[in-house]
Specification:
Blueprint lengths: L6 H43 L7 H9 L9 H8 L4 E3 L4 E6 L2 E7 L5 E7 L8 H4 L14 H5 L6 E4 L12 E7 L7 E8 L3 H18 L1 H5 L9 H5 L10 E6 L12
Antiparallel strand pairs: 1-2, 2-3, 3-4, 4-8, 5-6, 6-7, 7-8
Length: 264
């Protein structure tokens, strides 16, 4: 008759099994952890490359409303997502909102039909090009955008300018760069606004004005005759690329342009 296995042998066998399990865990854990870290890093990388917003509820609100698809929509729908306007300007037909660290300005008719949407950019204010203007998702992060980023990617961009020299102090003059407007964009455009008085934009504006002055004379620039029959896009090349964008507007493309009466 066989003797039963001793307790010592039983404990040794159990200890051997436990050691084997721990060895397997110790061998595979670094790979599991590393895989999760890689996945997390890739998510961050993709998020940065595609200007994606994080998944916080506030940022989801902004991504739902700041879009070319909202043009022609209603302020009632927008306010059901982001809340009521903090200011309504009946004269300029605009409504101001604060959402996701951004100042959002909506142009609307008396019945609440949306005609334009503008975001004032800042280090904490950003949005997703892929969601806002889908056909132009390759553009860099909006709050780091410069005119040159668009000039080298987009076709058919246009330049307009309020005032270039001797502008006075009644308002901050702006240079605009617009693009889009095709059927694929649902006939809507994006307007990038660069405030000339901003420190980073003063030098670029000076180079722009000087280039036009050398060609057409100082009076031509001071009297804003460049708003008539003049190729501002040609003058912009080599001068306006460093202009930093301060605000971005989405609106319907207006083919009706009323030139300034320059007397020429």
């Amino acid at each position: 008759m066989n003797q039963p296995t001793s307790k010592l042998e039983k404990y040794s066998a159990i200890a051997g099994i436990i050691s084997g399990v721990l060895a397997v865990i110790g061998f595979t854990y670094p790979y599991i952890t590393n895989s999760k870290n890689i996945e997390s890093a890739e998510t961050i990388k993709i998020s940065q490359n595609n200007n994606l917003l994080t998944n916080s509820p506030q940022e989801q609100k902004l991504s739902k409303v700041f879009s070319s698809k909202m043009i022609g929509g209603t302020t009632n729908f927008v306010e059901s997502i982001i809340g009521p306007a903090i200011n309504v300007d009946a004269h300029f037909k605009t409504r101001d909102y604060e959402v996701d660290g951004c100042k959002l300005i909506i142009g609307a008719t008396a019945d609440g039909t949306i005609t334009s949407m503008t975001i004032n950019l800042s280090p904490v204010c950003n949005f997703n090009w892929r969601l806002a203007f889908p056909n132009h998702a390759d553009l860099p992060q909006p709050n780091k955008l410069k005119f040159g980023d668009v000039m080298k990617i987009e076709n058919g961009w246009k330049i307009t300018a309020d005032c270039l020299i001797s502008c006075g102090n009644s308002y901050d003059p702006v240079i605009n760069l617009s693009f889009g407007g095709s059927r694929a964009d649902d006939w809507q455009i994006v307007v990038l606004g660069a405030v000339i008085a901003a420190d980073v934009n003063i030098e670029a504006n000076s180079a722009f004005a000087e280039k036009i002055t050398k060609e057409k004379g100082e009076d031509f620039v001071r009297d804003e005759k460049y708003k008539c029959n003049y190729d501002l896009e040609k003058a912009a090349i080599g001068t306006l690329e460093p202009m930093k964008v301060n605000f971005i507007t989405i609106k319907a493309d207006s083919k009706e342009v009323t030139p300034k009466d320059c007397g020429i």
